Amino acid sequence: MAATDVAPVLELTGIHKEFPGVKALSDAGLRLYPGEVHTLMGQNGAGKSTLIKVLTGVYTPERGAMLLEGKPIRPSSTLEAQELGISTVYQEVNLCPNLSVAENIFIGRYPRKWGRIDWKGMRREAARMLALMDIDIDVAKPLSHYSLAVQQMVAISRALNVNAKVLILDEPTSSLDEAEVQLLFTVLRRLRGQGIAILFVTHFLDQTYAISDRITVMRNGEREGEYLCSELSRIALVNKMIGAPADEQRAASVAEDAAPAQPAAHSPAQPLVLEARALGRRGALLPTDISIRKGELLGLCGLLGSGRTELARLLFGADKADSGGITAGDRASAAPFANPRDAIGAGIGFCSEDRKHEGAILSLSVRENLILAMQAQAGMLRAIPLKRQQELANNYVKWLGIKTASIETPIGSLSGGNQQKVLLARWLATEPKLMILDEPTRGIDVRAKEEIMDYVSALCRKGMSILFISSELPEVLRVSDRMIVMRDRKACGEYQRGELDDTTVLHAIAGEAA
Amino acid sequence: MTAPHVTARQTVPQAAPTRGGHNPESFAMLLQHPLMKPLAALFALLLVDLVFIPGFFHLEWKDGHLYGSVIDIVNRAAPLMLAALGMTLVIATRGIDISVGAVVALSGTVAAMLIGGTMVMHNGVPVYEANTPMLWALCAAMGAALLCGAWNGLLVSTLGLQPIVATLILMVAGRGLAQLLTDGQIVTVYYQPFFFLGSGYLFGLPFSLYVVAAVVLAVSLLMRKTALGLFIQAVGINPVAARLAGLKTAALIFFVYVFCSACAGMAGLMISSNIKSADANNAGLLLELDAILAVTLGGTSLAGGKFSLAGSMIGALIIQTLTYTIYSLGVPPEVNMVVKSVVVFLVCLSQSPEFKQMWKRKAA
After folding, report:
1. How far apart are the CA of B247 and the nearest CA of chain A, in angstroms?
2. How much of chain A exceeds pLDDT 70, in percent?
3. Model confidence at A77, in pLDDT bands (50, 70, 90)?
4. What is the reported pLDDT for A474?
């Protein structure tokens, strides 16, 4: 634990950064002490990512001072920052999956011997570096051979390879499961012991409290404050992130993830909007039955690889099913959907878990992204008049509280949560009967999460059905009318609202008798 | 705010131009318009011509139509403009079509062979008649081009071949087929009406210009009045997301290849009409590269997505003007290519964002 009389290894003060139309950082600051895990928290758009990019030389701030061990620095590239001792592991693992683990660690600076690459020495060294983190794997195998968590560790050890003083982890846990998170934390504690300052960015409150020594909260591009983790309660933290003194009930529900939601207006008497029988695909999903009623919020949970995303993709026609059938509304055929277009025609919308690759079309504007599905449905020839497009976009921007400079701003320059809201709007504009939301709240902050879940519940009350997939169990438990647990590529349990409690469901997910 | 860069987005009302040119802010925005650089390059070339080539802008009314260097350039640029137009849409979907030259050769060959021309005595006067009615011949040539496009489109959209590989097949096979049809000989056409397409005049201007204008107008209207432009961009930027949003991505990709070949087919007819023959060996040779260059000069990225039809047209004019200038200045033929490449290099450099960054850093 860092004591305050030790000099900070890195200090940022009065950082200003503006983008056209948006003030991303104004008078932001940060102090990192050697041997501490420091968590950076804030809502989407609070400026966390921008601050990190300033720190790692991706952006140059307009004003402000950066001191590394007392000396002013001004990195103008990530490479320069790395040479100074500031290393970063990004949210998406930036490695080459087809190269070996050892090559990934040493890429760009292979050890040489007699002018040739010293493969043997490289592997030995890579194994030693991983052993420092208690990881024992075959470093000659391609990286893709290993789980995401191990890949994350490889990314960390690559970052540490250069004499790192500061290690920045930008949402490293967003794609890891619980056991993998624990493994990562063990490694972080070890590194902390070695005197490295670790800056940890996350949205998960539990993880923040499990690992942090100190917390910096950012809000609206400014440093709201710096706190010792032990002295800041969860409710206080959420309050500081949101800014307004949130009412106790709401803050508590966010913090403890335990508040019951009000029952939605669905009943077994409602008609089915979709029914799939024995829907399956080899290597992805065993034949599975699923049905959903009008106005019902059906939760789908399970671990990564349990088949939950695969089921969603088959229901939407994103992948082609090789067995079973789907009946939906007044659809004539009972065959599975051949492509997303079919599914959209039957009144289904789908928010993919992979926002960046399967959702947003980054260099198109908010407006264009928003009307895309609607326009696709109307057909190419019936172009939606520009006026109507602008009206729609403006309405959704207002209704969902999307933070953007204008509706003509490329969606790529919005923060994750705001992009997600635009994609949600894309589907809402098609007025679907059933929305499939696959991890709609992944990688976005508490407030946006809350807002999105609020819309989801409101939509259900208006009669839209929702299939909700999330790896955050409390979130699913809180909102679902009914819940299906998946394991090993098939549905293995179904629970009605009354029977839902986290221990039962956890046992079902893990596959043990309750 | 970046200025809109594509036809489909031209409908977005822009604050700047309406406020008039006196406002410095709107002037700066105008300068940032993506069409600014290709236009500047074209004007620079024309300036060189104005200074060094006497009578470059001189226009003359002779035999009922306009004569002059400018007319000549535009007339000769017509096939390239068509090819560049088709190429723009292909490139916007992240693709590329290197079979354009081969399709030019094939369509020209089909038309020339079907029309041919035999001499018959009509009231004691020798008259050339087409072997096949010209309309049929033109339709057959365009049909051949469309088939080529369908083949390319099938390989890319349905079979998922890499565009450069898929169209490489036709690049080789198309010209080969044309050579096979003509036995490697040049097929001469003796039928007068066919020449109108490539060297005729209508209301004093080359007929080929009207063809280009009509096609450009039709495509622009299609971009403006339908969602085609948006869809092509969406597919070019993120095909996976576009499919999940309900777009018929495969059909779109198929369409752009068919369209590109149709443009190449028209260019082929123009070229063979202009040279009054079909030269399977040389007609349209490397035209695809000029077309790609025109698209690039016009500011459309080979990475796909945003595209500019107007930019590509300007790019084609730059290339043709450059060729004309080099010849007119009396640059020896052996240095011709080098000069051309240097100019192209300079234009490309001026568009490179990396280069701009380097420049800025140096200035700072």
Report:
1. 5
2. 87
3. confident
4. 73
List CB contacts (< 8 A) between B242 and chain A: 361, 372
The string of DSSP letters for A129-155 reads HHHTTT----TTSBGGGS-HHHHHHHH
CB A320 within 8 A of CB A338: yes
Closest-approach residue (CA) in chain A for B240: A358
Q: Which residues of A touch B225 (CB under 8 A)?
A: 383
pLDDT in tens, A442-480: 767 677 777 888 888 888 888 889 999 887 777 788 788
**Position A213 in a domain:** yes
Task: Compute the average pLDDT of residues A414-438.
Answer: 89
- Is B52 within a domain? no
Q: Is residue A44 part of a domain?
A: yes
Query: Does B17 reside within a domain?
Result: no
- Partners of A39 in the β-ladder: A200, A215
Instruction: Provide the shortest C-alpha distance from residue B245 to chain A (in Å).
Output: 5
ipTM: 0.79
User: What's the token pair of residue A173?
Assistant: 């846990």
Tell me if chain A has a CB within 8 Å of the CB of B158.
Answer: no
| B27 CA: distance to closest CA in chain A (Å) | 18
Over the stretch A79-131, which tens digit does the pLDDT of each residue have?
888 888 888 887 666 788 888 988 888 887 787 778 788 888 889 888 888 88
Please report residues of B whose CB lies closer than 8 A to that of A378: 227
Model confidence at B122: pLDDT above 70:
yes
CB of B11 within 8 Å of a chain A CB? The answer is yes
Structural domain total, chain A: 2
Centroid of chain to Cα A461: 27
Q: How far is CA B248 from the centre of its chain?
A: 26
- Residues A363 and A246 grouped into a single domain: no
Domain of residue B86, CATH code: 1.10.3470
Domain boundary among A215, A239, A256: A256
Q: Would B37 be classed as within a structural domain?
A: no
Q: Do A362 and B238 touch (CB under 8 A)?
A: yes
- Does residue A79 sit in the same domain as residue A227? yes
The boundaries of the domain holding residue A244 are 10-256
CB of B353 within 8 Å of any CB in chain A? no
CB contact under 8 A, A380 and B1: no
**Chain B partners within 8 Å of A386 (Cβ):** 11-12
Identify which of B99, B85, B77, B90 has the alpha carbon closest to the alpha carbon of residue B288.
B99
**Both tokens assigned to B296:** 């690039």
- Burial profile A43-81: b = 16 or more Cβ within 10 angstroms, e = fewer: bbbbbbbbbbbbbbbbbebeebebbbeeeebebeebeeb
> Which residues are CB-contacts of A127 (< 8 A; sequence separation ≥ 6)?
A102, A136, A139
Q: Could you say which of B227, B233, B243 has the minimum Cβ distance to residue A340?
A: B243
Tell me, yes or no, if B12 comes closer than 8 A to chain A by beta carbon.
Answer: yes
Write the DSSP symbol of residue A115. T
Q: Which residue has the higher pLDDT, A6 or A32?
A: A32
Instruction: For residue A339, list chain B residues with Cβ-Cβ distance below 8 A.
Output: 243
Which of left, alpha, beta for A108 (phi over 0: left; psi -120 to 50: alpha)? left
B234 contacts chain A (CB < 8 A): yes
Residue A64 has pLDDT above 50, yes or no: yes
A305 located within any domain = no
Nearest-CA residue of chain A relative to B252?
A380
The CATH number that applies at residue A40 is 3.40.50.300
Q: Say if residue A369 is in the same domain as residue A238.
A: no
Looking at residue A203, what DSSP letter applies? S
Q: Which residue segment(s) compose the domain that B232 sits in?
A: 73-351
Q: Tell whether A124 is covered by a domain.
A: yes
**Sign, CA torsion B323/B324/B326/B327:** positive
In a domain, B4, yes or no: no
Q: Which residues contact B362 (CB under 8 A, 6 or more apart)?
A: none
| Stated pTM of the model | 0.73
Report the DSSP pairing between strands A434-438 and B60-62. Answer: unpaired
DSSP assignment letter at B102: H
